[in-house]
Amino acid sequence: MSGSAPNNSLSVNEGDSQQKFTFKQTQQVSRALQYVLSPQEYRIVREKVLLKIPVLQDKTPTEDQFSSQGTDDDEVLAATRLATRVFLAGTVGLNLIDTLRRQLAKKRAA
């Protein structure tokens, strides 16, 4: 048995450069994604998008790492996701109404 600590980093080779992503950095990415995606949504995004991009395969957290992060404050994460979605939907809706209003004003003026 050696006296050294286990290496908790992921190595990604990109051409000549090598980037290391530690377990802590993977946890930080996972934590940030939890404010945007639920575990079910993350699973779908990971399967359909992230795993198909070779550069991102080792950089993204696994489903277990993603879902194990927010056990204490799932309600806060869910509320934040909902508030963000309501804000984005409201912004898109208001921009759509503004665009339609401008188009109607142009037609009336012509």
Labels describing this entry:
single chain, 110 residues, mainly alpha, two-stranded antiparallel ribbon, 5 helices, disordered N terminus
Fold and architecture overview:
The chain is 62% helix and 11% strand. It contains five helices and two strands. It has a two-stranded antiparallel ribbon. The relative contact order is 0.10.
Layout: helices, strands, pairs:
Blueprint (H helix, E strand, L loop, with lengths): L8 E6 L2 E6 H12 L4 H10 L5 H4 L5 H6 L5 H36 L1
Antiparallel strand pairs: 1-2
Question: What's the short version?
Answer:
This protein has 110 residues and is mainly α. It is built from five helices and two strands, in the order ββααααα.
Shape: elongated
Mean pLDDT: 76
Our Rg estimate from Cα atoms comes to 21 Å
- How many E-type strands? 2
Q: How far is the N terminus from the C terminus?
A: 84 Å
Specify the structural class: mainly alpha
Spatial order of the strands in the main sheet? 1-2
Largest beta-sheet characterization:
2 strands, antiparallel
Number of helices: 5
The amount of helix comes to: 55-70%
Low-confidence stretches: 1-18
| Number of domain modules | 2
Could you state the order of secondary-structure elements as H and E?
EEHHHHH
Strand content: 5-15%
